[in-house]
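Q: Sequence in, structure out?
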Amino acid sequence: MSKFTDFLEQKVSNPMARLAEQRHLLAIRDGVVSALPFIIVGSFFLVFAFPPLPEKWKVTQWLTAHATEILIPYRMTMFIMSFYIAFGIGYNLANSYKVDPLSGGLIAVSALLLTITPTVVEKLGFVMPMQYLGGQGLFVTILVSIVSVEIFRFCKQRNITIKLPKQVPVSVSRSFEALIPVAVVIVLMSIITVAMGVNLHEIVQTITSPLVKVGDSLFGVLVPVFLITFFWSFGIHGVSIVGSVARPFWEMYLAENAEAVAQGASKIPHVAPEPLYQWFIWIGGSGATLGLVITMLIFSKSKYMKNLARTAVVPSIFNINEPIIFGIPIVLNPTLIIPFIITPIVTSTIAYFATSVGLVKPMYVKAPWTLPAPIGAYLATGGDWRAILLVIINVIISFLLYLPFFKMYDKKLLDLENECNQQVESDNNTNVQA
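A: Exactly. Output:
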């Protein structure tokens, strides 16, 4: 077993850990995360505009009548999420290169804005289309943010900058240091978008459209679910790796679902935005470990598992399961890795079909991930009570799937504890006789 563990650590765990620390993936992850407050707050205005209340109530009628005004904060936040994400990616990537992060964020935003060609509207003048500042523009946002910061870094490292005397304030000096990189990025993007008439968004959408369709399928749900739990099995934060690649798709699905609701569409287009994973699959954290914690609370016989269950139950309710993953541990545990991977595959299959056939409303609201799953699912679906029922069903299923494997592992711990107790008693008796 030790040889197998060493093999997994050297050939799988270490390379995956290095991948998780790759600076561009980290910048994408942190850039998206930095925009989450705007996405979460903005999405809740959709719930206010279309409340899950009886239509005959006066408050419902008033909110519906003023939906256009209520949705303005949504359109200035979640609807243009790429604007905020561009700054986040640029800031974090520049910071990783030890160059001015504020300049990196601003350069990334300017590059994104220059991918969009304003139109002239009579009496209004120049008008910038906003659809590419939302979920539709995420892939281009990532691309131009990285390229613009790389240009900034190249100019900085090659001293292609304007340097001012040391007596000049640092803020002013940094602004002038970014002058040449900003000029290069603006001229480059203007040539591509204005002079050549290239629409990067349409090109990228054409290239990624097959992946977008696959990502919204059952296969597209099962693959990231498997990979995330697989990485976690070796102690690697799977969401950091898989999420960096898949999150642009998830956020695009969420943005398009939200816009469909805002437009009053009869059908919400996507099944698999990120809240589907958060509320129907990762109940209690990656691996759907809330069911395991309940199993531990009811069936633990070893003292260690009893104490761990009492400690971990409250964090698990709020989807924090590091005490379970590293406390049991599940990491490199051949007994519990099996249900840790299988359980979310089963629950994700159930959740996907329940949503795709209309038993549960597709998710379009970004609720804070630390909410208990029934509450988060209810809010993310805009107030669909059936989402609460689906969460309960999936918790029961995870409980049943973890149960036989946990009993086997708990029995091993109990036997080990008994052996240790017998050894202690034997040593005490020997000391008394002596």
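The beta strands are 119-121, 125-127.
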